[in-house]
Design a protein that fits this description.
Two copies of one chain form a homodimer. The first copy, chain A, is an alpha/beta fold and 187 residues long. Chain A is built from six helices and four strands. The first copy, chain A, starts with a strand and ends with a helix. At the A-B interface, helix 2, helix 3 and helix 5 of A face helix 2, helix 3 and helix 5 of B.
């Protein structure tokens, strides 16, 4: 079974090493991990190369089509939510009927991470808390936007979050390994 | 033709009014706009209600299945990228073969919006700029993450962005209207 390895890992300076570790964990469970940076972005000689960003898009899309499942790394990235590219890919895989799994290495909820408007106290029972721009803060106690969290339940397995935050939220693969195990158990 | 109206509009205090305006614009082009807040979240009497967040997820998913196209409002929300729920929905609609359109009311690029590491100067020709956490900044001069931008090209129409930023980036519907026009032209 092939597993697409989605996540902001590709933006870490040691991305290739993380990809290798993820693929090794997959192999231990009899899975083949497909890591976005493994693609070949050079077009065949003689053709005009598409812009690099478009080549990457095409390769990632081809890898997703080829995969049977996804493990989405959903640790919040540059804001209170997961990396946008990863979230797009989760939606794509959900709609294609692939097995969806995902993990975050943060323990707090989405609402916990959003800066609130001054004077508006957080209240678990209150769905109309406002952020600093006056926008409503979705406050269901979920790890991220409800579409992400419930998509995982509906199209695979519930999002995994740690009991205690690991020392390195970007590189800890404990929950990644559990996702691989969940996928392997469905074979 | 039915059009799913994705966007962080649902988090604005005047969300219902914005939804009405969007549906009116759709109607002018012979389209039926499906706005997420129009769903019925109450379960049938006698059944145990699912948590509200799950009811919303189910209703949004049913609306997406029912729609022929999506207009995704992609103005960056709580960070340098578009709203996570909207991005998930774009991925879902792309994979289901629906007509994908989207707009942002910001003129700057994704890379422009990310805080850079001190001492690392932005350089258009340099793909290894780092953010404050030491993570690589995707720097293709695109309006958002490459998966979002190229998905729109591949599965519908290129992202629309304004020549000059409108006074109210959350409520200006000039580009929304252009998206509706693009969808209507495909009928």
């Amino acid at each position: 079974m092939k597993v697409y390895l989605a996540g902001p890992d590709v933006f870490l300076p040691d991305a290739m090493a993380i990809g290798r570790r993820k693929k090794e964990i997959c192999a231990r469970f009899g899975l083949t991990g497909l890591f976005p940076l493994d693609h070949e972005t050079n077009e065949t000689a003689g053709t005009v190369a598409a812009p690099l960003s478009l080549q990457i898009f095409r390769c990632c899309t081809a890898m997703m089509e080829d995969a049977d499942a996804v493990i989405a790394h959903l640790t919040p990235f540059r804001g209170p939510s997961a990396d946008a590219g990863t979230v797009y890919e989760l939606g794509f895989m959900a709609a294609r009927g692939k097995i969806c799994t995902g993990y975050t290495n943060r323990c707090d909820s989405y609402a916990d991470r959003v800066d609130r408007a001054p004077g508006v106290a957080p209240d678990a029972s209150d769905l109309v808390n406002l952020d600093c721009e006056g926008h409503v803060i979705e406050n269901f106690g979920l790890a991220d936007n409800l579409m992400i969290v419930h998509a995982l339940e509906a199209f695979g397995h519930s999002i995994l979050a740690p009991g205690a935050e690991p020392a390195d939220v970007w590189r800890d693969l404990t929950l990644f390994e559990k996702c691989a195990e969940l996928i392997a158990s469905q074979k």
